[in-house]
Design goal:
Two copies of one chain form a homodimer. Chain A has 211 residues and is α/β, with parallel strands linked by helices. In chain A, 52% of the residues lie in helices and 13% in strands. Chain A contains eleven helices and six strands. In chain A, strands 2-1-3-4-5-6 form a six-stranded parallel β-sheet, with helices on both faces. In chain A, helix 4 links the parallel strand 4 and strand 5. In chain A, helix 3 packs parallel to helix 4, helix 8 packs across helix 10 and helix 9 packs across helix 10. The longest helix of chain A has 15 residues. Chain A is elongated. Chains A and B meet through helix 3, helix 4, helix 7 and helix 11 of A and helix 4, helix 7 and helix 11 of B. Chain A binds a DNA duplex (30 and 30 nucleotides) through helix 8 and helix 10.
Chain lengths: 211, 211
DNA sequence: CAAGCCTCATGACAAATGTCATTATCTTCT
DNA sequence: AGAAGATAATGACATTTGTCATGAGGCTTG
C-alpha cells in the first residue's frame, strides 16, 4: 500500500514514516513539508492514501486536499491534526476527505490508513460526536445589521446569492429595477465589495453555502 | 416543560401526546398537522421544546424550523423522522436544530426532549455515524468534464467563484480579457447558466462553499 | 491527412450592471 | 418639531458582461 506523507514538521514526518514503514504492507513513496507539493506528488506517485497535516504554513491541508480532489475525485485523503481544530472538521468533511484523526492516536494511524484504503471513512469518535454542535455554530457568523445592512437590503442580498438578476429581484420584491440597483450599490459599498458576484460568494461563504 | 407537537399524521400526534403527557413534567401545549402552523403556535405558546415531523405535506419540518429559528434563534427544536431521510440530516444540522431522531425510538423521545430542554444536542447514533458519508457525498459530485468543461475552463470557473472580474482572471491566467469572456460564455452555455453570479453560486454549492 | 478537440485572440454589439445626484414618503427617536 | 434612517423611485452615465462571428495554431486519433 503506497502512501504519501505531508507535514509541516519534519520530525513528525520522520516519526510517522518510521512507524508506518515498520509494517510490511505499507510503503512511504514520498514526503513533503507543505501542501503546495501535494498535487505534484500525487500526480507523480498515485498513492493509495495521502496522509496530510491539516495545519501547514504556506498551503494548508484543506486547500491541498481540495486541489488533489478536484483532479482526482477518488483520492483517499486522511487528514491529521494535533488537537481537534473545530473549524477544520466541517470543511474536511465537506471536501470529501476520507478520514480525519488526531496525531496523538499514533497507534490508530496504521489501522486508519488500511480502513481508508479499503474504502471506509474514518472519523475519530471525539470528532463525530461534536459534529452537531459544530454544524450548528458554523453557518451563522456574520452580523449584517452591525454593518448597517437593513432588512430590505438583506432580502436583496439573499436573492442576489440565488443568482437572480436585478430585474428578477425587482419583480420578486415588487420594486423597480432601478431601486434594486440602488440597494445593490449601497450594499456593495457597506460591505466593501465590488460586484454582485463577490456579494454572492461572500454571502454563501458566511452562510455555509446552502439553502 | 411545555411542548408543541406537529406531525402530518394525526395518529402520530395523538400517540406522542399520550406518551408524553403520561409524564408529570411534560405538557403538550398545542398540536398541529402542518409546518405552516409552527411559527404561529410558537409565538403564541413559547414552548420549551418544539417537536416536529420533518416530512410534511405542505410546509415541511425544515422550512418550518427555519422560520421559527429566524425569529427565535434560541428555539429548541427536535425533528422527528420515520426512517433516516439522508437528505434531511445535513440540512437539519446546519439549520441549528437541537435534535434529530427516529420516531421508532419512542422510548427515547421523552429523554431526548429533556436533554434538548437542558441545552444538549441530541442526534441518534444511527445518524451521527453516517454523517461523514453524507457530508462527503453531497459536496463533490459534479463532474465538470462530463459536461464538456475543459481544464482551462475549470480554472476560469474557480476564479469566477472567487469573485474576480474578467480582467482580473485574464491577468491571473495570462490571457486577454476577450478570451476570458469567451471561456465564460462557453461555460455558461454548457452548464445552462445565465451569468457569472449564477456560475459562482453553482460552483460553491457543488463544492461546498469554501476555498 | 483530415476531422475534431483545446487553446487563444479580435472586433462589434446589445444588455446588464454599478454609480451618482436628486427627490419623496413614512416611521422613529430625541 | 426636527433629525435620522429606511424605503422607494428616476434619469443619466460609464463600465462590465455576455454573445457572436471568425480565425489561427496545436495536439490527438481514426
Amino acid at each position: 500500500m503506497k502512501l504519501i506523507l505531508i507535514d509541516d514538521d519534519q520530525l513528525v514526518v520522520s516519526a510517522l514514516k518510521m512507524i508506518l514503514e515498520a509494517l510490511p504492507d505499507l510503503t512511504v513513496a514520498a514526503t513533503a513539508n507543505d501542501g503546495s507539493e501535494a498535487l505534484r506528488l500525487y500526480k507523480e506517485h498515485r498513492p493509495d492514501v495521502l496522509l496530510m497535516d491539516i495545519r501547514m504554513e504556506k498551503t494548508d491541508g484543506l486547500e491541498a486536499a481540495a486541489q488533489v480532489l478536484s483532479q482526482f475525485p477518488d483520492a483517499r485523503i486522511l487528514l491529521l491534526t494535533t488537537f481537534s481544530d473545530d473549524e477544520y472538521i466541517i470543511k474536511a468533511l465537506r471536501l470529501g476527505a476520507k478520514g480525519y484523526l488526531l496525531k496523538q492516536d499514533y497507534q490508530n494511524i496504521a489501522p486508519a490508513v488500511r480502513a481508508v484504503f479499503s474504502g471506509q471513512t474514518v472519523f475519530g469518535d471525539e470528532i463525530t460526536s461534536r459534529i452537531p454542535e459544530l454544524m450548528a455554530q458554523a453557518p451563522s457568523g456574520f452580523d449584517y445589521e452591525a454593518h448597517g445592512i437593513s432588512e430590505r437590503e438583506l432580502e436583496v442580498i439573499r436573492l442576489t446569492a440565488e443568482g437572480l438578476s436585478n430585474r428578477e429581484i425587482a419583480s420578486r420584491l415588487y420594486l423597480s429595477e432601478g431601486t434594486v440597483r440602488n440597494y445593490l450599490s449601497s450594499i456593495l459599498d457597506k460591505l466593501e465589495l465590488r460586484d454582485r458576484t463577490q456579494l454572492a460568494v461572500f454571502y454563501l461563504r458566511k452562510q455555509g453555502g446552502f439553502l
